[in-house]
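Table S2 (text version). Query chain:
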Amino acid sequence: MQNEMTMTPDTQQGIVGKICSVRDLLDRVPHDVVALIARLSIAAVFWRSGQTKVDGWQVTDSAVYLFENEYRLPLVDPWLAAHAAAFAEHLFPLLLVIGFASRMSALALFGMTAVIEIFVYPDAWPTHGTWAVCLLVIIAGGPGRASIDHLIARHFRACRAAR
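Corresponding structure-token output:
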């Protein structure tokens, strides 16, 4: 009598075939889509953080206060850190959204993420790890074709080919 839990070779191949089909389908997700979602989502996180630090064109006293009393970064004046963070949290997300200097912008925000994780909120590693993955997708794979960087690279390839 055959055990009902025992799979026949045909059943095993059917399951393996289905798993392989799903994997093959997932392999078709283009990097361009992944990179665009990574750029837009991480840009929103940092932009919103930057918005909490400013009132109009001014860095708020409360932002400086946070850098003085809660964040306490070593070796950096709190006033300077608050202004630099507010600037970076507006500039680099904007560059990511338009896809210009994307890898450099992602690298800068990756550095900020590391500083935040190491010196400010070390217990928030699940959140910072998620940010890091979005940024590493852009750093390692580029911003994708929906970017100014791609248009510039394509232009320079065309110029080189014309020589």
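Notes on Table S2: Helices lie at 9-27, 31-51, 61-71, 78-98, 102-120, 125-141, 148-162. The longest helix spans residues 31-51.
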